[in-house]
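Is this the right way to post structure tokens for a design question? Let me know if I should format differently. Anyway, here goes:
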């Protein structure tokens, strides 16, 4: 009977590998308003893999620089502190789960594809509303990362083909809690807390299916909830129009519009179809980014 007992959350999280020291160093520098670009360069320089990732992303089509960025110093200046922090957090978190990439190839590819689309959608939504949007990409990219920790912790009991993909409807969330006595949102947020990621990312993950329950920073999970929805719609064979998108939003997230308005965010002006078109452009331009993060 013992194996039926849920593994305590602390044990699950603690069994995951810690993030490279570069992450802590970069967070220290980026959280200090007195830091210089040189301090940030020094924090990343010892980590060859991270240097290459920052440079490659600085040169990717998504960031559309007219001139090639050839040094880390220039990359830090052109991208800015926030974007460099985003790249470092995203890469470290994606890489932490490298060991399960090979064993669950197909499910993992689909998982990261959805997560990446969600990250790009979150960035687009964030840019159009009144919230500092710097970290929306990372929040979207990592929104379901708790599922990967659960895959590791619950091993054979956690079927990746069932739990890693698909829309998290209310029924499915309930089923997940019944089966594992914990939800992927809680696991994900605890994981980010352990890694000492910024508060808005922790909140975004913890409440991405229940933004109304967040005590503070409610806008962040709300944006991720919408981005998650858009990313799921993105996989439809036919491109949906405004009416189809709004109808599907009402079906899957009946409280969404009310919560959006409670946050005093503009609803009448939002055009899901337009955001969808942006998403297509960003997906095309950012096609190589996921590989850079995963390598
Ligand atoms: Fe989720
Ligand atoms: Fe999702």
């Amino acid at each position: 009977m013992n194996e039926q007992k849920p593994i305590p959350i602390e044990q699950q999280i603690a069994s995951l590998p810690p993030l490279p020291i570069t992450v802590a160093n970069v967070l220290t520098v980026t959280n200090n308003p007195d830091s210089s670009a040189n301090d940030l360069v020094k924090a990343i320089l010892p980590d060859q893999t991270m240097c290459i990732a920052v440079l490659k992303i600085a040169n990717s089509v998504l960031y559309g620089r007219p001139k090639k960025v050839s040094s880390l110093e220039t990359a830090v200046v052109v991208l800015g502190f926030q974007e460099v922090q985003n790249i470092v957090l995203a890469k470290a978190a994606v890489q932490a789960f490298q060991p399960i990439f090979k064993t669950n190839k197909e499910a993992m590819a689909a998982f990261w594809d959805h997560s990446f689309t969600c990250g790009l959608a979150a960035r687009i939504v964030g840019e159009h509303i009144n919230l500092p949007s710097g970290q929306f990409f990372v929040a979207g990219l990592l929104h379901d990362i708790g599922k990967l920790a659960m895959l590791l912790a619950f091993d054979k009991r956690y079927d990746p083909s069932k739990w890693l993909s698909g829309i998290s409807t209310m029924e499915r969330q309930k089923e997940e809690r019944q089966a594992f006595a914990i939800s992927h949102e809680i696991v994900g947020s605890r994981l980010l807390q352990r890694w000492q990621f910024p508060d808005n990312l922790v909140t975004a993950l913890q409440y991405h299916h229940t933004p109304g329950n967040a005590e503070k920073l409610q806008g962040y999970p709300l944006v991720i909830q919408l981005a998650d929805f858009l990313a799921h719609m993105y996989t439809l064979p036919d491109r949906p129009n405004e009416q189809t998108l709004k109808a599907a939003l009402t079906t899957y997230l009946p409280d969404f519009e009310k919560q959006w308005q409670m946050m005093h965010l503009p609803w009448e002006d939002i055009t899901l179809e337009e955001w969808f078109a942006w998403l297509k452009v960003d997906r095309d331009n950012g096609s190589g980014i996921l590989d850079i993060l995963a390598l």
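Format looks fine. Someone answered above. Worth noting: The longest helix spans residues 72-96. Residues 2-294 form a domain with the Hypothetical protein af1432 fold (CATH 1.10.3210.10).
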